[in-house]
Amino acid sequence: MSTTPVEDSMRFKVRPLPSLLHFLPRLITNQITAALNPTTLEIHNDSASHSHHKAMQGSLSKETHFRLVITSSAFQSKMQPARHRMVYALLKEELDRAGGIHALQLKTRTPEEEERQ
What is the Cα–Cα distance from 109 to 87, expressed in whole angstroms? Predict the structure, then answer.
């Protein structure tokens, strides 16, 4: 149960992970929330589905593949590539870091676009 109107207006869906594997979803949540003030933020950790891939063998992390759905008025009047660049810029350190985010799938939309769906 939420405690504030802001929490009421936001929907966060983060898949449960083992206790030591919460760093990246929390970091993603903090970075995106601070910069974009989303009304919807869904974070799906798809890493387990990709752990058997050759590129993931010997990876320093078990959190490598994420799928995000972000609704924010900050995306107003921006095309999808510009929206994606905004998110990539926010997560640049983790995308560049060895053992960081290997793959990031994005669905970005404005509140008006979300209403139409």
Answer: 12
Burial class of residue 104 in the structure, from the number of CB atoms within 10 Å of its CB (0-12 exposed, 13-18 middle, 19+ buried): middle
Tokens of 47: 């890493």
pTM exceeds 0.85, yes or no: no
Q: DSSP assignment, residue 60?
A: S
Q: Which long-range contacts (CB under 8 A, 24 or more apart) does 112-117 make?
A: 113/71, 114/39, 114/40, 114/71
- Chain-centre distance for alpha carbon 69: 7
Rounded CA separation 17/6 (Å): 25
Do the beta carbons of residue 29 and residue 43 sit within 8 Å?
Answer: yes
Rounded Cα distance between 28 and 91, Å, is: 7
Give pLDDT tens digits for 36-72: 999 999 999 887 664 544 444 555 556 678 999 999 9
Q: Is the Cβ–Cβ distance between 110 and 71 less than 8 Å? A: yes
